[in-house]
Amino acid sequence: MIKSIMFVAAIAAATPALAQSNDTAKRSGLRIEARVGYETPTVSDGDVYKIGNSASIGAEAGYDIPLGNVVVGPFVNYEYASAKSCDGSVCLGSNGNIATGGRIGFNVGDKGQVFAKVGYDSFRLKASFGGTSATKTLDGVMGAVGYDHVISGNAYAGIELDYADLGSFAGINFQRRHVAAKIGMRF
Q: Which residues neighbour 170 within 8 Å (Cβ) at sequence distance 6 or greater?
């Protein structure tokens, strides 16, 4: 994942920046976005197994500070998905995810921005057996890469790929794989 982030950052840095200060303003400041995605939580014990998959819905807020043709800043997002896998009456699945951390964006052309994020991820795992259910919060490190494009004024749309390593629980390693399409506004 780190190699992917470094690769995207190197491409962005090598791309001629056509953005001027007005264009940088379109890609910095307070931002709020709605997100729709696809989530696949997984477990691994040498092999990787899916805990189902499902659509996700969520939102993100962040603040990007311009530094020439680069922006940096914090973010926080929440996404809900109901991916689950069942074996008879025993089910295991996702029950919400919150992430927070830092983001670095590289302006590309007059309307684009590639970005990388790194931060802390808190994933709610839900287990149910018959009529009984319980949740467990798994915490770990997350990373993401993506692209935003100004579509009109302060509005933008984009795509993002996320991965989180959530550590182990009961001797099993958990991860979250996620892709999201998003639309947002800068203020």
A: none
Q: What is the DSSP string of 99-114?
A: EEEEEEEEEETTTEEE
**Tokens 């890469």, located at residue:** 145
Q: What is the pLDDT of residue 24?
A: 57
Site of tokens 């550590």 = 167
pLDDT at residue number 25:
56
* Residue closest to 185 by CA, chosen among 36, 59, 38: 59
**Cα 92 from Cα 129, distance rounded (Å):** 9
What's the rounded Cα separation, in Å, for the pair 59 and 160?
13
Q: Does the predicted TM-score (pTM) go above 0.90?
A: no
- 32 pLDDT more than 90: yes
DSSP one-letter code for 15:
S
